[in-house]
Every structure is written in structure tokens, then in C-alpha cells.
Write a structure and sequence with these properties.
alpha+beta, SH3 type barrels, Alpha-Beta Plaits, 4-stranded antiparallel β-sheet
Length: 362
């Protein structure tokens, strides 16, 4: 600063400025000119360094990092210029306001750097894992980064201005408790959303049972979004059902694809008592084998479940490769069994009653 003042004093003497206001104006103009010259020079230097580093491609995010660094450097240069002008005009009380203002301004580059870093980690870590919950966690960090960074910046700025932030923090705490009581359902959903992310009973893309589907519509669907407040499920009827997270946490969750896409389906078939059970079982197994998405290992099997009033109740148990084809598999196998039974003369019984008429006058 002393060297800069000495340089300005020599220029003023050489030009012949005597009036104090002219001297002040001259210093301001020279300061602004120096600011623009330094900034243009630094931009050229940064552009040259960035161009050279693109040949090496050290990290994928170096372009946004240079943009953030350029923004931070501009703020720093403006801050130094402002500090010098404050000293020139001898208005130290403006300094605190300037510092507080630039703390909030610097929160922007800090927030951008945090977001770029989180996205880089998300691409390098979360996208390489099979679980999709990691992506949700990183998305939540990105959403909350703005609030966290700017809240901290405002608190520091107020403290810089000499404002006692303790009452504000205490008041915010009391207000938070009051808001918590007023919005307990919302907070309950938020807490349940965090627990869903931690416990992972299902992930985006899993097929689960939907207990709140409209009457007469599909009762299962795919998870398409897990939010902090609610989870969205698209049923096989292409209906989006939004269920509050706290309601999900209170129910049993039936997940068809959590372990694998492979599940076992059961098809109930009844045959007449006088039918050949071995033949019926053979025809049922042939119908299952003719279905493309039925697995060979473990092989399908037929068991006798019960002796009904008018039928022997059999059950086909077969594994299929895709849980989403459960109903298709049951429908296709049932059709094939009906066709085979009709062709081979195996009777599918229906309830029968024998009526005996007794003539008391005979």
C-alpha cells in the first residue's frame, strides 16, 4: 500500500495536481484503471494455464474448477480495490460492511466448488455401484449445500458487523421447535425418508407391492423416486402413486426384486378324483417347460395340496427369470394346461351335487 501511495504521489506531482478533491479523483481513477489492467492480465494468464492443462486432462472437472477460481479471484481483486479506496477516503466504518458483503459473495464460489466436488464423487463412486440409493444421498447433499454454505456465511457476516448472533441462533432454535410441533407430519416423513435411505428396504427400479392402489387397479409397481417426503411408485397400469414415507415405514414392504429378478410363481389346478394324477402332473410340467421365461434350475414341480370337495387340488411351483412377468407366466401356463387337459381328456371338475328324491307315498 505504501509503495502504491508513493507511486500515486509522484504521478500527482508530475501532473501538477494541487487541489485535494482532484487528488482524490485522480487516485480513484488510477485505482480503477489498475484494477482493470490487473484483472485482464490475470484472465489472460489463467486462460493460458487452462489451455495448457487441457492437454494433460488431469481431472475431468478442471474446466468448472477454473471457472470457480476465476470468480473467486475477481471477488478477491474487487475486495483489495475496495480496501484501498476505503483507506484513501479514510472511512474505516465501511470496511466492516465491505468484509461482510464479500463473505456472502465468496459463499457463491465455495458453494459451487462444493457442488462440483460432490458431483465428481458421485460420478466416480456412486455411479459405479449397483445401488441407486448412493445417487439419492449425493443428490440430497447437493440440495442442502446451498442452505448450509449461505447460512454459515450470513452468520459470519453478521458477526463481522458486530451483531450478536447468539440470540438469533437461540431464537431460530425455539422457532424450529415450534415449527416442528406445527409440522410434525412433515418432519415424520423427512425422518422416515432418511431411514429409508439408510435401511434400503427397496431401491429405485425395484418392484414392490402397493397397498394403496385404487380399487380394481394393479396392486404392484416399480419405484421411480425416493424423496425426503414421499416415495413415487408407477404401477403396471401406468398410474403414479405417491405414498408418504412415514406410512411406508409402518407397513410390511413386499419387494419382488430386492435380491434378484428371479422369483417363484404358484399356479393352482384342480383335477377330478378319477383323473390320472401322474398324467395330469406330466401335462402341467410340459406346459411350464413350454414357457420361455420359466427357469430350468431349479426345475418346476407339481405337488398335491389338498383333497377338495370335488377335486384333487394340485399346485405348480415354477421359477421365472423376470419377476415382472409373474402374471404373464401364470396366464400363459394356465392356458397351456387347459389346452393339454382338453386334448388328453383330463377333467377339470366343477362342484357337483347328487339329489335323491324320496317318494314317501310309495
Amino acid at each position: 500500500m505504501e509503495q502504491l501511495n508513493t507511486l500515486f504521489a509522484k504521478l500527482e506531482t508530475s501532473i501538477g495536481l494541487e487541489a485535494p478533491y482532484l487528488k482524490m479523483a485522480f487516485k480513484v481513477i488510477l485505482t480503477l484503471i489498475a484494477f482493470f489492467v490487473v484483472w485482464l492480465t490475470l484472465r489472460q494468464v489463467l486462460a493460458f494455464i487452462e489451455k495448457r492443462m487441457q492437454k494433460f486432462k488431469l481431472i475431468e472437472i478442471q474446466e468448472p474448477l477454473f471457472k470457480i477460481f476465476r470468480q473467486a479471484l475477481l471477488y478477491a481483486l474487487v475486495l483489495l480495490t475496495g480496501i484501498y479506496l476505503i483507506i484513501v477516503f479514510n472511512i474505516p466504518f465501511v470496511g466492516k460492511i465491505l468484509y461482510a458483503l464479500f463473505i456472502i459473495l465468496f459463499a457463491g464460489p465455495v458453494k459451487n466448488f462444493l457442488i462440483v466436488t460432490i458431483r465428481y464423487l458421485q460420478k466416480q463412486v456412486a455411479h459405479k455401484t449397483k445401488s441407486k440409493i448412493d445417487d439419492i444421498v449425493f443428490d440430497l447433499l447437493i440440495r442442502f449445500s446451498d442452505f448450509i454454505v449461505y447460512t454459515v456465511a450470513i452468520i459470519i457476516a453478521l458477526d463481522m458487523l458486530g451483531v450478536n448472533v447468539v440470540p438469533f441462533i437461540a431464537g431460530a432454535g425455539i422457532a424450529g421447535v415450534a415449527v416442528g410441533f406445527a409440522s410434525k407430519d412433515t418432519l415424520s416423513n423427512l425422518i422416515a425418508g432418511v431411514l429409508l435411505i439408510i435401511d434400503r428396504p427397496f431401491e429405485v427400479g425395484d418392484r414392490i407391492e402397493v397397498w394403496s392402489a385404487p380399487a380394481g387397479s394393479a396392486t404392484w409397481g416399480d419405484v421411480i423416486d425416493i424423496g425426503l417426503r414421499a416415495t413415487k411408485i408407477k404401477t403396471t397400469d401406468n398410474i403414479i402413486i405417491i405414498i408418504p414415507n412415514n406410512e411406508i415405514m409402518l407397513r410390511d414392504i413386499i419387494n419382488y426384486t430386492h435380491i434378484s429378478e428371479k422369483i417363484r410363481v404358484r399356479v393352482n389346478i384342480g383335477v377330478a378324483y378319477d383323473a390320472d394324477l401322474r398324467k395330469a402332473k406330466k401335462l402341467i410340467l410340459q406346459a411350464a417347460a413350454a414357457t420361455e421365461w420359466v427357469a430350468d434350475d431349479p426345475p418346476p414341480k407339481v405337488v398335491v395340496r389338498n383333497f377338495g370337495e370335488s377335486s384333487v387340488d394340485l399346485q405348480l411351483r415354477a421359477w421365472i427369470y423376470d419377476a415382472r412377468k409373474r402374471m404373464d407366466a401364470i396366464d400363459y401356463i394356465t392356458d397351456k394346461i387347459k389346452e393339454s387337459f382338453d386334448a388328453e381328456g383330463v377333467e377339470i371338475p366343477y362342484p357337483k351335487r347328487d339329489i335323491h328324491i324320496i317318494n314317501k307315498n310309495a
